[in-house]
Design a protein that fits this description.
Number of helices: 22
GO cellular component, one term: plasma membrane
Protein name: Sugar phosphate permease
Shape: globular
CATH superfamily: MFS general substrate transporter like domains
Low-confidence stretches: 1-6, 421-435
Number of domains: 1
Membrane topology: Multi-pass membrane protein
Radius of gyration: 21 Å
Structural class: mainly alpha
Order of helices and strands: HHHHHHHHHHHHHHHHHHHHHH
GO molecular function: transmembrane transporter activity
CATH class: Mainly Alpha
InterPro entries: MFS, MFS_dom, MFS_trans_sf, Sugar_P_transporter
Amino acid sequence: MQMANTDESIGRTRWVHLVPVIFLMYTISYFDRINIGLALPSMSKDLHLTSSNAGLAAGIFFWGYLISFLGAGYLAPRFGAKRVILTALILWGGFAIGTGLVQNYHELLIMRFMLGLSEGPVWTSTAMLLSQWFIQRERARAFGLWNLCLPVGAMLSGPISGLILTYSSWHIMFIIEGLPAWLWAFIWWRQIPTSVDQAKWLPAEEKQRLQTRINAEQIELAAGASPDWWAMLREPAVWLLMGGFSLINMVNYGFGIWLPTALKAASTLSIGYIGLVSALPYLAAIVGLIVVTRSSDRHHERRLHAGIPMIAIGGLLYIGSHIGAHEIVPIMIAFTVMGFFLFMYLPLIFTFTSELLPRSLAIPAMAFIGGFANLFGGFVGPWLVGWLRGVTGNVSLAFGVLAVFGILGGLLVIAIRPKRRRAVVGEIAVSQVGYR
């Protein structure tokens, strides 16, 4: 009871001043990561890209992303999360703009790789920042709100990019869409305090209570067991989760990057309308993400809440990709229903990990699962669709293969049999958002 009273006494000011700024920062990040999807048809024509070239250009982002993602664990504590994210905003804004200036395939590969390298530290730094401002009882909600930026960024990318492409070229699209990162760098530096003590909008007594709680939690965390990487690698559940997460990431990124190209081939819609239509699955994904997190918490169940939606994604993707080459309405109905399930697995995979394993294993497991799955899924998914499209001339086979991967991924997650049930550990709730 005393803890609850202390939580209430800390207040809600932080939610208003911090969460919207962080939410929009990461929305811009995800937007700049996937906006290449709508530009691929015209870019492929201008730069003489094969489908395999286009898929590689989209996926190479994740090689750069993995390098700096792994390095963020060193950078964020040493230089501070605020400074690392500020630097990332400036750099990725520059490379996003630079993508609009490329003149050939090799320049495009370099820009996409450097964009990934610039965005890589943002996840870990944001997680660290929120853990410094929100106590254990608040973190699940804070990270859940942050998690919504993924479908929001994807949803906004289509209509905005489509509008720009309707009246201009892909060169202008990348330049315009890269500018918000620089604008947000200024807002980020002004709005995000370096520490609790420097928050002018937080009353002195509330600062003291918050810092006392955060310090006490850090002492408790430091007293726990150290991460045990070798023991983690011997856990079958870790490999099943990594396999399942890698396969469903292939589906998510392969589908998202190539959806506009598929819609253009299946219809006579203008690029502006394709941008609007391609946003529908992600609009449904926002609703689905809210529904599944509430249901999972209410039933205290993670495995089926993550695995069954992954199977549904695969089934609906297969149906949508085999309805008919030019049946745009039924195709989009299937894809929009699929979108409802599209991000359900993301927060639950890592919550499930924290409940399956003791803290000394869960911390390295989440880094291992997230890092590998992002590289494998984010790189292989777009490239594989591009290669298969080049072989067959359409995306039906490619989406069908992704559908099988989604079903297999769900089955791998469902196959996990917990040795024991554990309450979600507060200090690990930081990973509910997943590694994106």
